[in-house]
Amino acid sequence: MTTDSSTPAGDDNLRATGFMVLSMALFATEDFFIKRITVEMPVSQMLFIICSTTAVILALLCVRKGLPLVTRDVLGPQVMGRNFCEAFATISFVTALALVPLTLATAIQQATPLLVTAGAAIWLGETVGWRRWTAVAVGMAGVLLILRPGLDGFQPEALLVMIAAVGLAARDVISRRIPSRIATLQLAFWAYVTLTIGSGALWLVRSATAVPELRVWLELAAAIGLGVIGYLALTTATRLGHVSTVIPFRYTRLVFAMILGVILLGERPDALTLIGAAIVVGSGLYALMRERRRKRAIPPRGRSLMR
């Protein structure tokens, strides 16, 4: 029996889709502000301010919901491994944002779900048929079109985005083995604690500090607010609707990033970038469709600055 949009379940899926698209718009706008801020402030300093403030906000949300901040589970090796991957990926991606166009970085980042598929098969023993393996291979070919190594227009800094995608995929693969009794808010809080420590250490090592003007502080506040609200919208989407219905709409982040990049940053993605991005997104959607037929998709645990 099918469920149409007039039923309660259909209405929930429709609202969940709206929340998912909203969260992707907010995350893309957050990335836009982060890219602007990196012109005025070292990446490590900016990350420390954003992550420490976000950690405090998430701690308050945990307290409000009656969730303990410190438990044996959240200090376990799986959560620590997940947080390390999150921190590694976030620092890599934000560093890349300072060096390459927003559109290019976001397009490469869309390969993360394909890497999760490969990682789950290799390290978790999940069944992945030849069709999904083909989708992974085609998607990686799309990434090569975007990167174009050895050709004119190759930007070595863009490899940082690919490194970030690998880190995010590792985070999501590890998350599938984390006990469900650990709340998403708890995971997010400890991820940002880890990011605060990592970015703070980098800031100390670099010893570079900027004293920004009021506009930059306002942009920092906007990035923090957009990230937190985007996280809440993403969580609402995955809880309200069927995950297999809403997850494909995560690719709308690329659309919003392209709009912001072209209109506000003056970026002009070339044909190879657009073709490569279309191949990556198409491969990801096909892999999701195949997984949906095999079983219901598993929601991601927690989020990062990249999501």
Automatic annotation (TrEMBL):
Location in the cell: Membrane
Main localization (coarse): membrane
Membrane topology field: Multi-pass membrane protein
Family of the protein in this entry: Belongs to the drug/metabolite transporter (DMT) superfamily. 10 TMS drug/metabolite exporter (DME) (TC 2.A.7.3) family.
Protein name: Riboflavin transporter
InterPro entries to which the protein is assigned, alphabetical: EamA_dom, EmrE-like
Pfam families assigned: EamA
Keywords of this entry: Membrane, Transmembrane, Transmembrane helix
One Gene Ontology CC term in the entry: membrane
Species: Palleronia marisminoris
Bilayer-crossing regions: 46-67, 87-108, 153-170, 182-204, 216-234, 246-265, 271-289
Domain EamA: 19-147, 158-283
